[in-house]
Write a structure and sequence with these properties.
alpha/beta; 20 helices; single chain; 9% strand
Length: 503
């Protein structure tokens, strides 16, 4: 095969992988599946044409990071000039509606709203999300995100950070205008999931937002700490260095081409090895808009009277896991856990194995990783917030399990959303599942009751006490929901110690 035809074959393989990822995103497939094809496309792009041809001939494509058996088959068929069967199947359903019903509403829509890009929890780059919106006939698309790309693209100076008060301005608009629509400006609820939950947590520590909302819900978005101002300055200096700019102004940053900006961003993350949530491109404790961390070392008292619902799902991390994470042995389990908790690894694994004796190594990894990132911080936030003795706190733990993917996702990140919005038939995680609608009725009623009164109790659920550090009452959502006191006690204590959250 000549060099030109080799290059053409490589380009064709990348186009096919990108097209499959696009169609999976459009069909609302799990994020990890979309990312599998995106990652494979990146791997192929980085290869020389000769290497790709040789690996196909040797059958060694799957030895490369980011390429599994399915993506390997797709690449091989594309390079051979064939239409990959995986793509053909997706294309055959691409023209159909995304979900049943609502045709009149969809026909009237002029725009679209996306809440994540691949720099946070979603599967596709921003450009692909724009293409998806255009393919659906939309005239515009709005994007709300905690993505570092958006932060980078809009500048990193303290002045710019002080201007990032869009949510506060929106809440002011609600206060001044919502009565015209029949709303009550004295009874406003802010709630969000994942990055949205982090925004809610940040609002609770922002003096400019005080009095603009009266209930708050944080779903799988526990945020104890934000980025320290000094660290934000260090990251900004490193970014400027990567861009070869000395003390850049906001206009200097805005003039940088996007591809160059993103290259500098990724180089900064690699060189500084920063955690995005507490050390990288995230909201900063700037001393003005955000004078202190939301829940460190104690809970902020800025909006202490606002009632709070907070919680997480049992296996948050299954949603975005790599394929290998579902087939771990004990050695690989401990290797992954060690990357999270270091010297506490053996103790953590032993505690979780004792509490979950029938769990596989992969099950244990997902439980540990989910508590490390979401569960334990949510429980600590509930504890610190309740310690203020002001607005009540209600803690939940969502353990209803989806049956898709053979049940391996269990209770993934986002699983509570269709229950909260009472649209379980519109989500592939819940559609057709026995008991899902009944649980959705109960969960959505609890959220509505909370928005109305600041109390999520309804006759359809067991009495849900406000959280306190002695009982640690937790609503465990499942087909048969129950309230349990400190349901994960041993795991909680072990994870608190590993995360230095014991006090």
């Amino acid at each position: 095969m000549g060099s030109v035809s080799r290059m053409e074959a490589t380009r064709r393989a990348v186009e096919v992988l990108d097209r499959i990822a696009f169609l999976l995103e459009r069909s609302r497939e799990p994020t990890y599946r979309v990312k599998a094809f995106r990652n494979a496309a990146k791997t192929v792009t980085a290869m020389s044409a000769g290497e790709l041809e040789q690996r196909i001939a040797d059958g060694t494509l799957t030895e490369l990071p980011g390429i599994g058996q399915v993506t390997s088959t797709v690449i091989t068929e594309a390079v051979a000039g064939d239409a990959p069967s995986y793509l053909t199947k997706l294309e055959s359903t691409a023209a159909g509606p995304l979900v049943g019903g609502g045709a009149d509403l969809r026909a009237a829509l002029r725009g679209d709203l996306h809440t994540h890009s691949d720099w946070s929890d979603g599967g596709s780059p921003i450009e692909e999300m724009m293409l998806a919106a255009r393919a659906l006939g939309h005239e515009y698309v709005a994007l709300t995100d905690h993505s570092p790309r958006l932060t980078v693209a809009n500048g990193l100076t303290p002045e710019r950070l002080r201007q990032q008060l869009d949510i506060v301005h929106a809440l002011k608009w609600v206060r001044e205008n919502i009565a015209r629509f029949g709303g009550d400006p004295g009874r406003v609820t802010v709630f969000g999931q994942s990055g949205g939950g982090r925004k809610v947590a940040t609002l609770l520590a922002m003096p400019p937002a005080k009095g603009l909302f009266h209930r708050a819900v944080i779903e799988s978005g526990a945020t104890i700490k934000l980025v320290e101002r000094q660290q934000a300055a260090r990251v900004a200096r490193e970014l400027a260095s990567q861009l070869k700019l000395e003390k850049p102004s906001l206009r200097d940053l805005q003039a940088v081409p996007l591809d160059r900006m993103m290259s500098a961003y990724f180089a900064t993350v690699r060189s500084m090895n920063v955690d995005e949530m507490t050390m990288g491109f995230s909201p900063t404790v700037d001393g003005v808009a955000v004078p202190r961390h939301p829940f460190h070392p104690t809970a902020s008292d800025v909006s202490a009277d606002v009632p709070l619902v907070i919680g997480s799902t049992r296996t948050e991390l299954t949603l975005q896991a790599d394929a290998a994470a579902f087939s771990l042995d004990d050695v690989s389990l401990r290797g992954r856990v060690r990357a999270l908790v270091g010297p506490a690894t053996d103790h953590i694994v032993d505690v979780y194995r004792t509490a979950n004796p029938s769990a596989t190594s992969s099950d244990l990894y997902f439980l540990i990783a989910s508590d490390h990132r979401y569960g334990a911080p949510a429980m600590k936030i509930a504890e610190r917030r309740a310690a203020l003795g002001r607005g009540p706190v209600y803690l939940y733990y969502f353990r209803w399990e989806t049956r898709i993917e053979g049940g391996r996702l269990k209770s993934p990140h986002t699983i509570e959303i269709p229950f909260v919005f009472d649209n379980v038939e519109a989500s592939r995680l819940t559609a057709g599942a026995t008991g899902a609608q009944a649980l959705a009725d109960r969960v959505s009623d609890a959220w509505i009751a909370f928005a109305r009164s600041g109390d999520p109790n309804t006759p359809q659920l067991p009495p849900w006490p406000a959280f306190d550090a002695s009982r640690r009452a937790t609503m465990v959502f499942d087909n048969a929901s129950v309230v349990q006191n400190d349901p994960l006690r041993e795991q909680r204590l072990a994870m608190f110690a590993a995360l230095d959250l014991a006090s």
